[in-house]
């Protein structure tokens, strides 16, 4: 890495951030991308001398299922605004006795159980690239997020494995038992993928603040997951999530040399002259420096 990058935070999550105390809405960005429209306008917020960008993942009125979210457009739109560090805020089911509803988890691994319905790469259509994904979350952003979370809560879990299922239905009892017996996961959710994969391809440092809401349907002495139960816990945890975001903003460095910020440096296999012009134009924002366009 030749030089550090100027850090800019972006957040993809629920609508609670609209009401964070002390946050000023500075501007709304309606961004058209080569991959279609994002879930909603990108909102530029100010908090003291800090600025961050926010997209409601499911739209401001929650009109998009996890499978319908345009993850590529969301990530691309934030990248176009200079976002380097991307935080996903996700409500998740609990898959282990060690976690209680209301706890927060900062996972370090993920398992993909989606069904191939969601476009999960910026590559294809005449350009081939393979980014490393062994460690799917940014070590730097996770460390900062863990620090911020511990300053606000005692119910923090510093690691865990997130299973991402397709949805929008919740798991069957057989599926929930299968995941626990074969994968030993910590959390289950529907939205971390392909978001994490696309953030890596877009050379962003990405991490998740997971809000633990329920025990899916595996726990014999706890109620099965329901929308009402999830909403109740998420509402209760909104203030905590907002406090953690405030802490994170306060401790973010001005510059970063996180390896994620150059994740695609050696990823593209296709010779630049062989990349179709339309694809080259669509991906110039992401990879122009590797095409020789910058």
Give a topology summary.
Layout: E1 5-6, E2 9-13, E3 24-29, E4 42-47, E5 50-56, H1 71-80, E6 85-94, E7 104-105, E8 109-113, H2 139-150, E9 156-157, E10 161-165, H3 173-183, E11 187-189, H4 195-201, E12 205-214, H5 227-251, E13 255-256, H6 277-282, H7 284-291
Parallel strand pairs: 2-5, 2-6, 6-12, 7-9, 8-10, 10-11
Antiparallel strand pairs: 1-13, 3-4, 4-5, 6-11, 7-12
User: Into how many domains do the coordinates divide?
Assistant: 1
Distance between the termini: 17 Å
Main beta-sheet strand count, sense and barrel state = 11 strands, mixed
The name CATH uses for the topology is Rossmann fold
Q: What are the low-pLDDT stretches, counting only 5+ consecutive residues below 50?
A: none
- Beta strand %: 15-25%
Number of strands: 13
Structural category is: alpha/beta
In CATH, the architecture is: 3-Layer(aba) Sandwich
Order of H and E elements: EEEEEHEEEHEEHEHEHEHH
Shape: globular
Mean pLDDT: 92
Give the count of helical stretches.
7
What portion of residues is helical? 25-40%
What is the level 1 CATH name? Alpha Beta
CATH superfamily descriptor: Nucleoside phosphorylase domain
**Cα Rg:** 19 Å
